[in-house]
Predict the structure of Phosphonate C-P lyase system protein PhnL.
Amino acid sequence: MTAPLMLELRDLSKSFELHHQHGARLDVLRGLDLRLHAGECVVLSGPSGAGKSTLLRVIYANYHPTRGTVNVRHDGRLVDLATAAPHEVLDVRRRTLAYVSQFLRVIPRVPALDIVAEPLLQMGADEQEARQRAGDLLRRLNVPERLWSLPPGTFSGGEQQRVNIARGLIVPRPILLLDEPTASLDAGNRDVVAQLLAEARAAGSAVLGIFHDEDMRDRVATRLFPMHALEAA
Ligand SMILES: Nc1ncnc2c1ncn2[C@@H]1O[C@H](COP(=O)(O)OP(=O)(O)OP(=O)(O)O)[C@@H](O)[C@H]1O
């Protein structure tokens, strides 16, 4: 493969200390190796509890790995997020690494359009351009225009998810981590998301995701990465 290497996991392990169970240890990831290139969409597969969400959270540096390397291509060089300083992690998140889960973090009193536009404004885009792009994405994702000026707290689960996807994709970041972003979407809106992901890949993004819906998985995956639950330690 000649496309640039965007993400490289080496010998990655994660255990949790269970403080309520006299410090027992739960091994969730052990010695994982994975390489993700620009333009690829690798889908994590495996049963519930195999550690798929944990892996995405370790890559996004929400969890610290117990051992191993999380190399991310950032500004043309590989940065190991397992050892990076907090300000560097924040810079990688702002410009290189997007994480879209199935849940929108609702900010009280902030309208949907502004929630979607915010990451682009933070990158220095002017307000009109950011709102225009946010509107384009919300329209493509079939979020009715009458909702754009309302805070999404009262939106349906599927509407909130579509606002969340629009927010996650508005800045074209080189690596996308997706944790079931389409869980409550109907077939029509899943199609739109598949199309948006195809466009992101064509523009050079690398995608690593979890999609329980088999149809969606088959549509978006260029490769599966099988995972399985570890034996109890
Ligand atoms: N913060 C935590 N503390 C302790 N255990 C945790 C923590 N986060 C996850 N786990 C455990 O790690 C294991 C893997 O969980 P994870 O959510 O990564 O699995 P998954 O493959 O994404 O499952 P699903 O498909 O059901 O979403 C589970 O046994 C879970 O209880």
Residues 103-172 form one domain.
